[in-house]
Design brief:
- By secondary structure, this protein is of the alpha/beta class.
- The protein has 2 domains: about 210 residues, DHBP synthase (Alpha-Beta Complex), CATH 3.90.870.10; about 100 residues, 3-Layer(aba) Sandwich (Rossmann fold), CATH 3.40.50.
- Helix content is about 30%, strand content about 20%.
- It contains 11 helices and 16 strands.
- Helix 1 packs across helix 5 and helix 10 runs parallel beside helix 11.
- The radius of gyration is 20 Å and the shape is globular.
- The termini are far apart.
- The chain binds threonylcarbamoyladenylate and magnesium ion.
- Magnesium ion (MG) binds next to loops.
Length: about 350
């Protein structure tokens, strides 16, 4: 298949493709999404095929104005409304009981649907012009890091989808915060730029799903199917070292070889005797978030590297989102160093 490359001015071409049942990669503020008409099951099926995504992993439905939610969900609890009043348009996804208009393939047969109103002007314009809600997972091959640059999408999707709209780099860099309002109490399924602390300021105490910090053990049922997959796995093995900077540097240097690399913070590289991939300065979590997936993709270009020792982000604020992605990339290998 020939994949058209569209510029920022060609939102109308992207919308025409969506309307006619095709699939287009579109920039959002978090990561690039692979979009299709959410109400057209055969269009949505093409997304699963192009990504190689397991059919039991449901998609997020994107809208461009709040009112578009009414046809998709049964009801909007007060807390959900309060939260989106503060954080929409933006990197927040809410899960609610769905109506029959939402095709089963979108929700992987669940009776809930995930909804997001993104802030990216191109994404919102394409939704508006196509006049349908757009179902979109991240536009990467299943199991690869989410795409935060045009080149990431091009490498994964060229030849597999109808078009890619080049919107430059994504500003947030990690996927949206996902919270469900379909249970007795609100529960966080995926941390993101909108933090637990920010959410609790608006609606009070929320639960955080255990899988956010631990992953889903074999035999357990995932409350959000995406949480059970290893995800973002580079070819080399990533091991997270849970310790302070000094211990990290000493440990990695003690393992130094041509097959070892470090995934660390700016300033660490000068003290390390191995190849270092940095992604921002320690504690500058928003910048780290923006650079993280690109750093993971860089690891994949380093053919001789077999082991990557990663520094362990502090799982607080946006650091929780980073930690959540990193433990998945590491297949949940965290080593405590004393
Ligand atoms: O920032 C984002 O959310 C990006 C952009 C493109 O909007 N999208 C994204 O989609 O990250 P995806 O498919 O890569 O991740 C969606 C996550 C998955 O973990 C999925 O299992 C979960 O949301 N999810 C979707 N619908 C759900 C539902 N009804 N119940 C529980 N989890 C759901
Ligand atoms: Mg994804």
């Amino acid at each position: 298949m020939k994949t058209q490359i569209l510029t920022k001015r060609q939102t109308n071409v992207a919308a025409d493709i969506i309307k006619s049942g095709g699939i287009v990669a579109l920039p959002t503020e978090t990561v690039y999404g692979l979009g299709a008409n959410a109400l057209d099951p055969s269009a949505v099926e093409k997304i699963f095929k192009a990504k190689g995504r397991p059919s039991d992993n449901p998609l997020i439905v994107h809208i461009s104005e709040f009112d578009e939610i009414y046809s998709l969900v049964k009801e909007i609890p007060t807390n959900a409304k309060k939260l989106v009043d503060v954080f929409w348009p933006g990197p927040l996804t809410i899960i609610l009981p769905r109506t029959a208009i939402v095709p089963n393939i979108v929700t992987a047969n669940l009776d809930t649907v995930a909804i997001r109103l993104p802030s990216h002007p191109i994404m919102r314009e394409v939704i508006k012009l196509s006049k349908v809600p757009i179902a979109a997972p991240s536009a990467n091959i299943s199991g690869k890091p989410s795409p935060t640059k045009f080149s990431h999408v091009f490498n994964d999707m060229n030849g597999k989808i109808d078009a890619i709209l080049d919107g430059g780099d994504c500003s947030v860099g990690l996927e949206s915060t996902v919270i469900t309002f379909a249970l007795d109490t609100p529960k966080l399924f995926r941390p993101g730029k909108i933090t637990v602390e920010q959410i609790e300021k608006v609606i009070g105490k929320i639960e955080v799903d255990k899988a956010v910090l631990e992953g889903v053990k074999a035999g357990q049922i995932a409350s959000s199917p995406g949480m059970k997959y290893k995800h973002y796995a580079p070819n080399a093995k990533i091991i997270i070292l849970d310790c302070n900077r000094n211990k990290y540097i000493n440990y990695v240097n003690s393992k130094a070889s041509a097959e070892v690399a470090a995934l660390c913070y700016e300033g660490d590289e000068k003290d390390l005797n191995v190849l270092a991939i940095t992604y921002g300065k320690e504690y500058e979590y928003e910048i780290m978030a923006k650079l993280f997936f690109d750093a993971l993709r860089k690891i994949d270009t380093m053919k001789n590297i077999k082991t990557v020792y990663a520094r362990c982000p502090n799982p607080q604020g946006v650091g929780l989102a980073l930690y959540n992605r990193l433990i998945r990339a590491a297949g949940f290998e965290v080593q405590k160093i004393d």
